[in-house]
Amino acid sequence: NAGVTQTPKFQVLKTGQSMTLQCAQDMNHEYMSWYRQDPGMGLRLIHYSVGAGITDQGEVPNGYNVSRSTTEDFPLRLLSAAPSQTSVYFCASLDGTTDTQYFGPGTRLTVL
Amino acid sequence: SQQGEEDPQALSIQEGENATMNCSYKTSINNLQWYRQNSGRGLVHLILIRSNEREKHSGRLRVTLDTSKKSSSLLITASRAADTASYFCATPRRGGYQKVTFGTGTKLQVIP
């Protein structure tokens, strides 16, 4: 099992550009989430999904879109990047039988 | 404000000593989880304690939960240099795992 994979590892964008952060898991988990981690702020939930075709907003959803067409994939789209979106982004999937979240290695995004 | 707040924010100990970190939370929870994050990496699940449990052990880890005080502690015994990392508590709130909240973390440094 690869677990949770994220691409790219690093990305630099200019203000106004759009991009998609990829996330995939091979554990057949229904729940998947996107978090951002900023210094001194802990992890904040951006969007989450409870299954294919079902997504909802988390704590800080503005400026981000998600979709979940398959169980495996949960991409995060930045529509028009802003410097405030400079952060480290983590994708996670949840094992519903043990309540354990599995995190990807993260994407470090810088918006200039 | 953060649902889970870890204390202290930073801790530096000698190898072989015990490390204790605390977490306080505000609302009712189903369970409380502790995660470790090595520098530049994703979070790794350490241990989960359910709301009806008071203490749980896993190897050198001991977690306690006091629901009346809305607090938890993580004890790492006989610390090793490899334990150097940030430690986070996570508290899924009643009503859905999607409402999980992470604290800002305790940064532990174990000096060889």
Fold and architecture overview:
The complex is a heterodimer of chains A (112) and B (112). Chain A contains no helices and eleven strands. Chain A has strands spanning 4-7, 10-13, 19-25, 31-38, 42-51, 54-57, 64-66, 76-78, 87-95, 100-103, 107-111. The termini of chain A are far apart. With 112 residues, chain B is mainly β. Chain B has strands at 5-7, 10-14, 19-24, 31-37, 43-50, 55-58, 61-66, 71-76, 85-91, 101-102, 106-111. The chains are: A mainly beta (112), B mainly beta (112). Chain A binds chain B through residues 4, 31, 33, 35, 40-45, 48, 50, 56, 58, 90, 92, 94, 96, 98-106, and chain B through 2, 4, 30-31, 33, 35, 40-45, 48, 88, 90, 92, 97-98, 100-105.
Top keywords for this entry?
heterodimer, A: 112 residues, mainly beta, 4-stranded antiparallel beta sheet, B: 112 residues, 6-stranded mixed beta sheet, 5-stranded antiparallel beta sheet, 54% strand, globular
Number of strands of chain A: 11
Looking at the structure, what is the overall shape of chain A?
Answer: globular
Relative helix content of chain B:
under 10%
Q: Give helix % range of chain A.
A: under 10%
Q: Name the pair of protein chains with the most residues at their interface, and give those residue counts.
A: A-B, 27 and 24 residues
Q: Tell me the number of strands of chain B.
A: 11
What is the element string of chain B, with H for helices and E for strands? EEEEEEEEEEE
Q: What fraction of residues of chain A sit in β-strands?
A: over 45%
Rg of chain B, Cα atoms, Å:
13 Å
Query: Over all CA atoms, what is the radius of gyration of chain A?
Result: 13 Å
Summed up, the helix count of chain B is 0
Question: Helix and strand succession of chain A?
Answer: EEEEEEEEEEE
Class of secondary structure makeup of chain B = mainly beta
Structural category of chain A is mainly beta
Low-confidence stretches of chain B: none
| Poorly predicted ranges of chain A | none
Assembly form of the protein: heterodimer
